[in-house]
Amino acid sequence: RRVIVDLDDYYCARPELVTTGGRGATIRVTWEEALYETPPNPRDWLRHRPKGNRNEIEGKYWIGVGDVFRPGGTRHESFETLWWQAGRYVEFAVATANEPLVLESFRIRETRYPPKAESVFETDDRRLTDPVPIMRRALMMCSHETYMDCPYYEQLMYVGDTRLEILATYATTRDDRLPRKAILMFDESRLTNGLTQSRYPSRIRQVIPPFSLWWVGMVYDFACWRGDKAFVSDRMPGVRAVLDYFRSRINADGLVEAPNGWNYMDWVPAWPDGSPPDGMHGVSGVINWQFALILSHAAELEDWLGEKEMAARNRRTAEAVARAAVGKFWDGKRGLLADDLKHRFWSEHSQCLALLSGLLPKGLRKRIAENLFSDPALERTTIYFSHYLLETCRITGRMDGFFARLQQWFDLPRLGFRTTLEHPEPSRSDCHAWGAHPLFHYTATILGIRPKIGAKEFTVAPRLGPLRRARGTWPLPQGDLVVEAERTGTSGRVVVRTPRGIRAVRGRP
To answer: How many helices and strands in the chain, by DSSP H and E?
Structure first.
């Protein structure tokens, strides 16, 4: 007997099976996120195969992972597993021997970190609100003893994923125990050269140097959204160690040479293993602009902690790297920054990081901001790095680009997704919580709630784009920061309510 059960949602759960009789039988219980449109190929198992609409199973192929149970033939035998499984679909494949078998019961016991959903986002456009349960479910399913990239595959906490998961956590709950633990664990993972490991805890050591920079970004985010000075101060030796490693890679031209390790940045199809042009060997524009951006964040941290000399040093380095990067990567004819020194490759990534750094000359900033949204030949950010594109849309005022990029999330409900996927189709993982980052942008960008470092004063600058109205809450430890924005004709209305001890000021939209 073979049966496929649709759980109608994504679960991380421990299976519990009770049987009677059936000595010599085998019960194979396997889990899958979705079924495949093409048969598996053992000689090409790394290739991502299409799955189509996740609600559909007819005519598709099952692969699955799971457990085999072997009844002893007695009454009311109970089976449990040593670890949990994950997915939406469960397949039972039962083969009996000479005795009849009764499956008395099967149930699943869900396991995950139990955050409370303490935020609200409401708007007149259902395209934004319909994917919210999908994004929240993905974040839940990737939150356990630690965050993780995905529950079905690696079950590892990666820095790049975790930074976005933490931002989504700040936007949805006051509970910041998991963010604190993640920041601390990556600090504890540090190697003798100053870099963090890319994923931790992990039996196998892996280093993604750009992820060490994103860890510094995690510390900066915590300072902005939570403002715990003692916790941040304890992380600063690690922050400085990461930056000093990258300083050691600066060459005679003032640019960072490719660090040792896997310099992954995004799953762009044209980038081998997700590394940008010259990212593994040579000088990458993407990596240099990321370094300049993170140096600027670190300078703010040092200023906040009273380390004026350290702040000035970071700003000097950031400005020097930015000047060298403009000199080598700027292409006046195209009006964009190249990814490589020979100006053969171009991406949204370089433009976004350069704009976010705030270090571009004014004239270049304007041209890049225009061409970023008009040049059809740029390599596009995928689901993960789209966070930085959405941040760029915010600072450039291009909410048309913001809502256009959200189309990937607007499509999720009609395609049968219950969680957010890893990258554009065909996707390996159907549950990757880095795809939950629009939860952050709904309130932080559309409603425009942004903190000054220290988390005592917030700027509110709604950017409604095509929306007529939006309302949301940001759950702070002191209480809810509530913003209501409405546009009527050429005018608008913004109402802000803050908890005690929090100040809000109106910013420029």
So the answer is: 14, 15
